[in-house]
Every structure is written in C-alpha cells, then in structure tokens.
C-alpha cells in the first residue's frame, strides 16, 4: 500500500478528479487480455507531459512503482500492476492527434490515441498508416509502440517500429527527452527511440509519437488460395514471396480451424476439401499492377499444389472471404474450454516444418492445436486447446506442450513472441530464448534508464 | 602506450601475424575521411568472433582502449583512435558473406564485407540491398551499421537500420550476444540491435549482420528536372513526393554546384539557365508503372515551375545525366582550398527555407556555400568553401558559419547529421542538438554496455 501522504502529493499535481482509489476504479484497471487480475493502489490520469514528469520525479524519489497503461488490451500483462503501485493511464487526457503533416507525410500523436482513429484520420486525407494489430479498434498507439505491435499488413508494410520516427518520453527521474526527428535520416546520438519501442513501459513513459505515413494505395483486391494440406499451404507462403509476390497480407487457416469454422458458422462457405487456406489482399497504385500481383500468386500457389484460387470481384465478396479469417479465433473454442495461445514467429521457410512439429507435440499430449495467423511474415497464432480447464493434469500438460513449442521455435531461429511481447505471461520462458549474458545486458539497460526500478518493474523476466 | 606484456597476451590470442606495431601499420590505420590523424598503439586483426571476445575480455580487465574499424572511410572520426589504444580491424579476416537465404530473402555477413560486394552478390540471384552510401565501393557493412549509413536510394527504400534484422556482437566484457532474429516480427526482449545501429562502435563490436533483402526491381529509368531557382526545386521536392511520386532517388544540385561543374567539366552538358536541378531514378516491376511514376514527377515539377524535364532513353543516357551529380563534390573545390562540409537533414517541407537561410549565413561571412545531395529525404550536403585555408581568420569564420547552420537546422526540427555520424568532428555541436538530460541518458546507456569505457571512448561527445 502506498502511504496516504504520497497520494496527497500526487493529487496536488493532477487534481482530485484525476486520481482514483475507489474499488470500482481499481477493478476497472486491474485486467488486460490475459485474464490475470492485479489491483493497483491508485489510478492516475495525467493531463499532459508535465504531469507525467512531475509524477515520475516524485515517485522515483520515493520509490513508488508506476505502471503506464493505454487501453489495457495486451496479451501478456505488460500493463498489469503485478507488483502493485500506481496505474498511469494515458487514455483519458493524452489522447489527441496533434498534427497530420501532409507535406512531410508524418503524423504526431499523443500515446492514448486509438490505432483505428488514427488510421481513419490519415486515410481521409489520402495517407496510410499500415500497422493494423487485431486490437486496432481499441488499442492505443502508445501501447502499440510499447509492444511493437504487428498485424496482418506486416507481410508487405512492416510493423510499428518501421513507422516510428521520433518519440517524446519521460524518464523515471522526471527528465523529458526527445528521441528522433521528423527527418528520414538522423544519426546523431544513440537511437533511443529504437530501444523504447517494444520496451513494454519499463524504460520511460512515452508522451508523444511521430509516425511516418505513406500514400494510400489506390486499388485493393482480396484473394484466397485453397490447398490440400497445411504443408503445401506453408510451402506456398515462402515460395510465392521469394518469387516476387508482395501481398499486403498472407493469412493462414489450418484444417482444424477450417473444421471449427464450419461447425460454428454453418452459413460460411468454405471449400470442401481444404486442408489449408491462405487469404489476403493485394494493393497497388494501378489495376494493372493488381493483376500482375494476382497472377504471380496464382501461378506460384499452383506450382505448390493449390486446388483453387479465388479472387473477390468487389469489396462485398472480399468481406465474405475475410469472414473465415476474422472469426478464426472464436471458432477454435469448439475444441475446448481453455485456449493456451501463443504467437510464435519463425523464418518463413521454416513454416512447413514448424507446423508439422507443433502438431506432433499436440498429439503427444493429446491436444488439438488449431493454428492460424500471419503466415506471410512467419508469425503464427498457435492454440493448445484444453478440453477441461478444471482438470489440473490437463492444464499442466498444456503448459508443458507450450514450453516444448517455444523450445522448438527458438531452435528453428524463431522467437517467443512475434507481436504480443513478454510481460508476465512469457517471462518464465525468457531463459529458453536468451542467454545469461543477454539477460544481464537487458538488466543493465533497464538500470541505465530506471536505477530505482520504479517503472513497470520485474516485467520481461527482468 | 600499452604495456608490452599486454601486447604479448593479445599476440597469444591472434598469433604473430595478426598484430602489428610497426610504424607503417600505425600510419596506415591512423586516418579516415576527416583527414585527422591519430596513431594507434597497435593494430590487431581478429580471425573470428572468439578472438574478438578474448581480446575484449582481456582489454576490459586491463582497461585498454579498443577502437573497432572497418574500411576507415568515415567522415567524422568514428574509427580514429583519438584517445589511443588498439585498432581492432575487422576487414582482413572477418569479411565473408556467410549466407544468401533466398527462401527468406535474407543475407548474413561478417562486418568486414564491402557494401558493393554484397550488393553485387545478391543482385546476381535477383535480390536487392538498397542502402547505397557514396562510399559503397569501399566502406564495410559493419561500418555502415555502426554509422547507420544512408545513401541516394533512401528516398524510396530507407537506410541501413531499415534492413538490419539481427546482429551478433561482443560486449566489452567479452560476452557474445545475439540481438534480433531472421524473422520479420520479433518482440521478445529489448531491441538491442536497434541501439547498436548508429552507436559508432561505442557499445559493442558487431561480429555478424543479418540483412533483409527485397526482390530486385525489374525496370529503372533516370530523370532530370530543371528549375529556374533553388527555391522552386526545393519546393518541387516535397510537393511531388506528397502527391504520390515515389522515386528511388531525388538528388539536388544548386546553382553554385552547376556553375562549378561547368567550369571543371566543360564537356558536361547542363541546361543553360538552370538555377537548380533534381536528378534521380524511378524503378518498378513493370514499364507501365515506370511511365506512371515519370508522369507524376513531370506534372508535379511543372506545377512548381520546372523549365525542363528530361528522361534518359537508355542506361548510357542515364549515366550522362548522373555524371553531374556524381562529380558535384570534387567540382565544388573550384570555390576554395578547403571545404567545411556537413550533412544536415531537415523535414522535407523545410528545404526551401533552410537553403535560403544557409545562403544568407554564407553571405554574412563572405563564403560561397554550394549545396547538393539527397533532397528526396531532406538530407543536404552543405559546403562552406574557405578560399585560403592558411588564413586563420577565414577558417575561424568558416567554423562559426557551420555552427550557425547547425543551430538553424536544429531549430527547424532537423539533425546535425543525416548520414555521417558524430564521432569527434561533430562532438562539439552535440549541445546544440541535445539537452543535458539527453546527454546524461546517452552516458548512462554507454555505461550499461561499457562500464570501464574501453570501447571507442569519448566519441559522440560522451
């Protein structure tokens, strides 16, 4: 518990209306998408950067833990106060789009801006912000930067880090810093923005984000490739991309997901004999280029055994094709009462082997493991389905299977997390992915920003 | 001077043939493109990563300074032993291309590989590595990563950091670390690769680099836009790019450079009444797209007052158009005996104003300031021409003019260095660009990697 005098001091900074300690608020800010719950000691809503600075300076002096929070939609507990302390909520006041600079194709936002709100705003003036995490409707750009969010369009357009040009941030000692510039080239000083991205709120509180924008592509079409097996679909992924295809997205559904979709959504029309499906969009500045792209995909899919290639003739048809992918996650629940889902990522050419081995691990423990996700960038959502979550043995086996999958992925040159981060959920697996030397370096970096360990402490296994 | 016993120990690691202390070697490794000279105490050629680790571990224990060096082609003294110590030369042994992974479109190299050698190797198999610093014929990829090298193609394709997927590196304590993966998405742990890029050899010695490749564009054409004034050319830069043009490069020559070229290379045919020139390539996967791109450029240039738009009909004609840009740097020497050249970078929309103000600063001190460079990404090479370099007053004025230019650029949201880094040359100007809080953070980061300050110490104003 935080001493009353500390809360009084923080109240003197932000005002009565911007600090809450009542039960309703503590509960409202105790959760995220992990379903773990940790109540904070207080929730504070800074009005602006200076508030953030004043709060951090005081908390640093008194060694009070601060956990920055956007929308609380993370999958690994990054925004949970798992070690107590104060939630610093950026979504109430620090949620403005500050500038859309059309001449330099740059947007400047506060951290609490919702991803989709920003996408829509820039598209209205003919610009485009590609990173589209599945949480785009509710997650904040501050959270996106802190977790280095990905999304479906990463196959062509990259991820959040590829769009961050500059950050303003407050260090734990209250110092306000600027990292990066509104310029394409900038090599003066250390790339501090580079290390703040994906640092999960453990190094500094981001207060302003400068994002690169690109011209909005004029044309878009949706395609679907149908394959007899997971293996042939996975082979088509890396072969088609290596042969020059450059789709916006290349999403994957395996045979279990297809089965689940048919069961849960009987109205959805999915090819009868599909063992694996690839779906995505192509975009371009001309229709001719769209046709080129579709042809490359079609030919390459065929060479790798596809049994059908469907192109949506309009947006409506496109939406129908996308229905299956958009509903893959809820559909998998037909296989169990609890889903242990991970977002592993491997070099694309390893996808066929990785999927084969993941199913084998599932078989060994008796789990169905439906898989889907962003095959175009090697990032797959793997779901170990526990039939009875009250069965301790089954749950324990599920976690063992997950650990084996992590080991497999790391052995293949892949990563524990393509998009979701480490937070608290994946912290126990950090030793699979990193050596003691690497963990020591992480701890030293953490200490160089936050010597008193007040900012989101003990996350990421640190 | 380093104690003889230390040199003997290092000899026991690398062998007699890989450590040099004779005068010829000390001179051969004392320079870079700054023309400053600092002789090292010894030059060591590690054979492999383990050598690097053993050397660093020993030198860290005995607080011996190590300066990593690629080709020594840097413009700011990053590879100079300005505080003595041992040059660790990566170019003799650690210069192999280890893998071109066509399936994942990734290259893996040792740090001593020459940029152009890598470009040529990947192009032979239909792939493309875009970063093309002017030093591409001789600079190493390790140096490119350490300085975050740019180049002409940055306008469309970005800079070195946009292609680094993973690094292997040795910390000053000898620990070998891996940062990043051969995957498009990876958000596990801090983005250590992100901060090693552009760290100018002050944090770790890079021993292996994994680089993203893209399919080689099939078609390319060269264009030249002729403008009546610098201001109209600079306006056309940001207006054309904001209107959807996406050229590989958009290089700029101002009227002084054009004048110098005519004087120095009478055979070069340059438009009579040109006050500013933009030159570059467009590339695409189809000829139709090339035409589209050229049309957008031509129209947009016209709207901004261009008086001519030339398209090279073949590669030979293209080379002729490029001749002027390629020889801009030597041509400027017609204006003086000493060139104080800086590579400032501003948001593109600030280019017209920035150039106006830079010329005014030149006028104030009586200097001609020919400018050219990578206007498409806002990065301009500014050359303050000193007529008599033996005149102390004139040299002092030149440095004052440079300092004013830096202040101007920073006030406009620009950076001290778009490509060349800080090293020792720009270290005195760091206080213009960074606050004490930011410099403190840099020092803390440096300390977290290198507590004994043995690795390229005191560079970047640290």
From TrEMBL, chains A, B:
**Source species, domain of life:** Bacteria
What's in the keyword line of the UniProt record?
Answer: FAD, Flavoprotein, Oxidoreductase
Residue stretches making up the FAD-binding PCMH-type domain = 36-216
Q: Which GO terms describe its molecular function?
A: FAD binding; oxidoreductase activity
| Name of one Pfam family that matches | FAD-oxidase_C
The record, for PROSITE patterns, names: FAD_PCMH (PS51387)
Keyword Glycosyltransferase assigned:
no
Q: Which InterPro entries match?
A: FAD-bd_oxidored_4_C, FAD-bd_PCMH, FAD-bd_PCMH-like_sf, FAD-bd_PCMH_sub1, FAD-bd_PCMH_sub2, FAD-linked_Oxase-like_C, FAD-linked_OxidoTrans_Type4, Oxid_FAD_bind_N
Q: Which cofactor does it need?
A: FAD
User: Is Oxidoreductase set as a keyword in this record?
Assistant: yes
Show the SUPFAM superfamilies listed in the entry: FAD-binding/transporter-associated domain-like, FAD-linked oxidases, C-terminal domain
Which family does the UniProt entry place this protein in? Belongs to the FAD-binding oxidoreductase/transferase type 4 family.
Supply the name of the protein.
FAD-linked oxidase C-terminal domain-containing protein
